[in-house]
Recover the amino acids of this structure.
């Protein structure tokens, strides 16, 4: 995020329910079925956030961020809540990271947001496929919606009960259906790409051209509509073959009308959100080695007097910037050494009766196995010199 010059934003875990109902859309799955909604003591309806785009835009408008600069590039890493049936890759409290570029309608920002997601997945060695589409805008989408609805009416008997219902309220969502029968039917559905108005078509072609320019591979999928109502023009999704039924790594798109829908001035924007748990599932499957960060020093004390000395030393080594720990259970030297290993300590400092008497500590470099006698007065310098301090 830093490389792409996005800045962190943190918003509250809950918002007024109306924000999501107005922002995401009443007849989406999220708002219709999945929100954790409750009344507070003042009888205000609140909802644990199911996603971050609406809260970020709410915050952008409330704090007049447009006055700071015509473009705000924001990111978040945060828990989300959806009341779904838990299964592999689908949790009720899960985490997303994501970004929002708010204020401008340049197709370069669509491409930048996609490129940022690509760089993150690539850096983590995750193979993915990128699907992209344009869902048009309120100018051109209604004509498509009508045509699609007519098509769905003609195929009504072959559709699932869910899709038969959605056909009325949100026919585009039928294209999203996971039901195999629905998928077969909608293969022959009209394509939104044949209905785009000139500005939407140009925008879409520009985004694709920019992705070509930077070597990002994608598949255009005219059935990709995503589950939220606020999208306009670009919609995209990253899919992983290493995930099961829940194969979406992340998704996003442009939402030029959301700010206005929430009572602000027209403010074009584009964003992306990724599931962190799904990322971890794929990384684990790939045998990704998670970097194991150990501590710098473990202090091993052999008797009460040594423990007293060690406790003071612990404090001063920590003040000098080292990550240091000690045994609090009064265990044997063997158990303490095992603990030092378990904590992946780089150095172990051993203090006993003899060390106190001679004012020299036994210092063991756990990585190379060497042992040194170091004078108490020199101990801190010795450790600091031998351990690169964390930034
Ligand atoms: P969405 O806003 O629904 O497109 O969600 C964006 C991403 O968040 C998805 O592609 C998933 O990776 C992740 N995600 C969504 N819902 C869940 C969930 N219930 N549990 C875990 N990850 C989720």
């Amino acid at each position: 995020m830093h490389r792409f010059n996005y800045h962190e934003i943190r918003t509250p875990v809950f918002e007024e329910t109306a924000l999501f109902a107005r922002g995401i859309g009443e007849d989406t799955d999220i708002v219709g079925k999945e929100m954790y909604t409750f009344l507070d003591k003042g009888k205000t309806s609140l909802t644990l956030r199911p996603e971050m785009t609406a809260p970020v835009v709410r915050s952008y408008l409330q704090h007049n961020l447009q006055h700071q600069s015509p473009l705000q590039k924001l990111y978040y890493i945060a828990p989300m809540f959806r009341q779904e049936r838990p299964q592999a890759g689908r949790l009720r409290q899960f985490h997303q990271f994501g970004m929002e570029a708010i204020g401008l309608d340049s197709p370069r920002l669509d491409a930048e947001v996609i490129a940022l997601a690509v760089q993150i997945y690539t850096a983590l060695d995750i193979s993915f496929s990128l699907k992209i589409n344009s869902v048009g805008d309120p100018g051109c989408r209604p004509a498509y919606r009508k045509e699609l609805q007519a098509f769905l009416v003609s195929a009504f008997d072959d559709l699932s009960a869910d899709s038969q219902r959605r056909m009325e309220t949100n026919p585009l969502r039928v294209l999203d259906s996971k039901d195999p029968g629905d998928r077969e039917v909608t293969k022959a559905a009209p394509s939104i790409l044949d209905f785009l108005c000139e500005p939407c078509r140009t925008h879409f072609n520009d985004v694709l051209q920019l992705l070509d320019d930077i070597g990002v591979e994608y598949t255009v999928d005219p059935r990709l509509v995503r589950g939220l109502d606020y999208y306009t023009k670009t919609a995209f999704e990253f899919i992983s073959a290493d995930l099961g039924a829940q194969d979406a790594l992340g998704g996003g798109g442009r939402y030029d009308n959301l700010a206005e829908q929430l009572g602000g001035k027209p403010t074009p924007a584009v964003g992306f959100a990724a599931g962190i748990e799904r990322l971890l599932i794929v990384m684990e499957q790939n045998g990704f080695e998670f970097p194991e960060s150990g501590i710098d020093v473990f202090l091993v004390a052999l008797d009460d007097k040594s423990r007293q000395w060690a406790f003071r030393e612990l404090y001063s080594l920590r003040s000098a910037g080292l990550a240091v720990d000690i045994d609090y259970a009064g265990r044997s030297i063997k158990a303490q050494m095992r603990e030092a290993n378990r904590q992946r300590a780089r150095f172990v400092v051993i203090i006993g009766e003899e060390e106190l008497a001679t004012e020299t500590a036994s210092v063991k470099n756990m990585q190379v196995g060497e042992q040194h006698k170091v004078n108490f007065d020199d101990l801190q310098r010795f450790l600091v010199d031998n351990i690169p301090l964390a930034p």
Q: What stands out?
A: Residues 90 and 387 are 42 Å apart (CA to CA). Residues 51, 82, 84, 89-91, 94, 96, 227, 248-251, 273-275, 277-278 surround adenosine monophosphate (CB under 6 Å). The chain has two domains: 7-140+196-285, 297-384. The domain at 297-384 is CATH 3.40.50.800 (Rossmann fold).
